[in-house]
Write a structure and sequence with these properties.
With 395 residues, the chain is an all-alpha fold. It folds into two domains: 30-71 and 130-391, no CATH class; 82-125, Orthogonal Bundle (Arc Repressor Mutant, subunit A). The chain is 66% helix and 0% strand. It contains 15 helices and no strands. Helix 3 (42-67) crosses helix 9 and helix 7 (129-154) packs antiparallel against helix 11. The protein is elongated, with a radius of gyration of 24 Å. Residues 336-388 and 391-395 have low confidence and may be disordered. This is Ceramide synthase 4. Residues 341-395 are annotated as: Disordered. Residues 345-354 have a biased composition (Acidic residues). Pfam families: Homeodomain (PF00046), TRAM_LAG1_CLN8 (PF03798).
Length: 395
């Protein structure tokens, strides 16, 4: 049964137009092509990235947060109380008035003392601004490196300037080693983000982040295996460019650099709307719907990849509405856009700023964004894959 499922999963008809099969993507005449086994290298890479993130957040993020003036604020630790702690952990972190009164009676405390205990306990649980800053610093480095590194790799490719050319000769398109390593890095980044998501600062769009990361991982894998790599690189660039400014804006916001954060937010808004709502659908996704099938009939992979891209674009529209709401309230109405910030960040920032006497600044709230879209033989190991992509040029 497992053999049947394996054969069914790697059936040519699911991955390629009917004129092609896996045999057509075997390396030949000095040209290399993507193979599913190439992505095995992402397993160790993902754990390396998690370790690198841990080091950078502490060796770069924390010192930089102090240098930029990020203040965590003074937090008074809640006193030890087993009854209140049990209620906090198992029932509610923000109990109702009737529950507070009942707890006060149980603990022989006044209502005000119980309220104070829960307020202090909630503050203990919330992430410090320095932690948020360090997380944003890591993501800024990742997106900055990915965008400008990827731009350098594909800048001279004809299909970078004319996306219709992404489908010339599809799917038998040779793979350049530099693009392989960029793809692998992007894949590892999103896998590592998926693993650490539950430990990161919680956002109001946490569920959307899960959907986004899951879709991104599937699309990256599928696009590599089915050789949608050219169009995949354009999708990666269109998403990473705005994320550079998103994370930079978060850092300046946490540091209370109000003028800088406002300027960056305006730049971020413009770039996000242009890259996600104009360039992506009209210059990139349009070709995946129409140009990709000019010489082929639709097949399963066509519907599958475009379906996931539609999910990602729906998330882009969702985030665009939040960003436009923020832009209106911050830039036009000159109000703090509390209602579109994440629940966790809104509360913790408010508490910390009330302790330190700082004024609020904007805090761009959107999840990390995708990078792309979208076996037989998973044998051969990582060494042969590494050598193959280090040494053999594409033609």
């Amino acid at each position: 049964m497992l053999v049947s499922l394996y054969d069914c999963f790697w059936n040519d008809r699911y991955w390629f137009p009917k004129e092609y099969s896996w045999a057509d993507l075997e390396d030949s005449d000095g040209a290399i092509y993507p193979h599913p086994k190439d992505l095995l290298a992402v397993i160790p890479l993902t754990f390396v990235l998690i370790i690198v993130r841990y080091i950078i957040e502490r060796a770069v993020g924390l010192p930089l947060s102090r240098l930029m003036g990020v203040q965590d604020g003074h937090r008074i630790k809640a006193s030890h109380n087993p009854i209140l702690e049990s209620f906090f952990q198992t029932q509610s972190q923000n109990p109702k008035e009737s529950q507070l009164s009942h707890l006060a009676t149980q603990c022989s405390l006044s209502l005000r003392e119980v309220q104070r205990w829960f307020r202090r306990r909630r503050k203990q649980k919330r992430p410090l601004l320095s932690k948020k800053f360090s997380e944003a610093c890591w993501k800024f480095i990742v997106y900055f490196s990915s965008f400008f590194g990827g731009l350098f790799i594909v800048y001279n490719e004809p299909w970078f300037w004319k996306s219709e050319l992404c489908w010339n000769g599809f799917p038998k398109q040779a793979l350049k080693p530099a693009i392989y390593w960029w793809y692998l890095l992007e894949f590892g980044v999103y896998l590592s983000m998926m693993i650490t998501l539950s430990f990161d600062v919680k956002r109001k769009d946490f569920k959307q982040q899960i959907i986004h990361h899951f879709s991104a991982i599937i699309l990256i894998y599928f696009s590599y295996c089915a050789n949608y790599i050219r169009i995949g690189t354009l999708v990666m660039l269109s998403h990473d460019v705005s994320d550079v400014f998103l994370e930079a804006g978060k850092m300046t916001s946490y540091a209370q650099w109000k003028n800088s954060s406002t300027i960056i937010f305006v730049i971020f808004t413009v770039i996000f709307l242009i890259s996600r709502l104009i360039l992506l659908p009209y210059k990139i996704l349009y070709t995946t719907y129409y140009s990709s099938m000019e010489n082929h009939k639709p097949f399963f992979g066509y519907y599958f990849s475009n379906g996931l891209l539609m999910i990602l674009q729906a998330l882009n529209v969702f985030w665009s509405l939040l960003i436009l709401h923020m832009f209106y309230r911050l830039v036009i109405a000159d109000k703090m856009p509390d209602d579109v910030r994440s629940d966790t960040e809104e509360q913790s920032t408010s508490d910390e700023q009330s302790e330190t006497g700082q004024k609020k600044s904007w805090s761009p709230e959107r999840s990390q964004t995708l990078a792309t879209f979208p076996s037989p033989g998973v044998s051969g190991g990582l060494l042969s894959t590494k050598k193959r992509h280090q040494s053999v040029p594409a033609t």
